[in-house]
Amino acid sequence: MAKLPVAVLISGRGSNMAALLYAARQPDCPYEIVLVAANDPAAPGLDLAAAEGIATFGHSHKGMARADFDAILDAEIRKSGAKAIALAGYMRLLSPALVDGWAGHILNIHPSLLPKYKGLDTHQRALDAGDTQAGCSVHIVTAALDDGPVLAQTKVAILPGDTADSLAARVLMAEHQTYAPALAAFARRTLAGG
Length: 194
Ligand code: GRF
Prior knowledge:
Blueprint: E1 4-10, H1 15-24, E2 31-38, H2 44-51, E3 56-58, H3 66-80, E4 84-87, H4 96-101, E5 106-110, H5 122-128, E6 133-140, E7 150-157, H6 164-191
Parallel strand pairs: 1-2, 1-4, 2-3, 4-5
Antiparallel strand pairs: 5-6, 6-7
Helix pairs in contact: 1-6, 5-6
């Protein structure tokens, strides 16, 4: 069975990357992870990916122009044979050249019910607004931050007494359940030529 080769970009612990990876090991999963790359060579998720036998690439973006760093990243991703990119806790904006070069083939997971709360501090912002529901969204990456078409969302109740941390932990569980099926559906469409 043909599988869509995917590169996953991370910046830290990589729990969403791990969820994507373990889902890829289930029978009939239509994608495979061919590279895990990070903008921090010390990202713990890189060690996890390496221990799982996945090719890794870690390179610090510090002191580099965004376009130069992204050109290095782009070359690594293309070398891996990936045909799509999954951002999973990748905490940097992508350069316009990278987004354009992969237009429609980059996915991201964001810890809010988009279009609400683009950017950072999503959980505190949901609490401050008095929302009764939070959640996560998987979307196609476009040039604007957290703005592309939404592919999947999972709602999570906000409980009385929730803190940003307790809510983040529950939303993270939802993220782990949401990303792999959304990526799998994307992969099936892509493999079918859609
Ligand atoms: C996730 O909540 C993701 O949505 C956000 O940063 C967190 C990364 O966690 N952008 P992990 O690295 O996937 O564990």
